[in-house]
TrEMBL record:
Keywords: Hydrolase. GO terms for molecular function: hydrolase activity. It comes from Aequorivita aquimaris. It comes from the Bacteria. The keyword Nucleotidyltransferase does not apply. The keyword Mitochondrion does not apply. This is Hydrolase.
Amino acid sequence: MIRETLTIAVDFDGTIVEDEYPRIGRPIIFAFDTLKKLQNEGHRLILWTYRKGRTLEEAVKFCEENGIFFYAVNQSFPEEEFDASYSRKIHADVFIDDRNIGGLKSWGEIYQQLVGAPAPAKPKTQKKGLFSFLK
């Protein structure tokens, strides 16, 4: 999946935070860490959410307080003006959403898939024999 930079559209409720809409839920583990790392690597983050008005402003502010500053919010680029005669779909290389088929992967798995990093090796477990307590 790796390119020089990606434009990544990410949902808010159920993806960055637990779904408590219209309130803001607790952050999902590693969501902000992963998004900050992606942002620091030069990837563009777009907040792509159902929220609008006050609840959208609260979500953007919450993300900023947690170190995430979006390239754009509910649009493909900051200068884009919404026109109801065109599709609401935005342009992004990747969409991260809890409504994916199969659900939301862990943020560690998401990062690994986006940057092409191998999954960490699982530690080998030794089988315990009948007399292992004597060792």
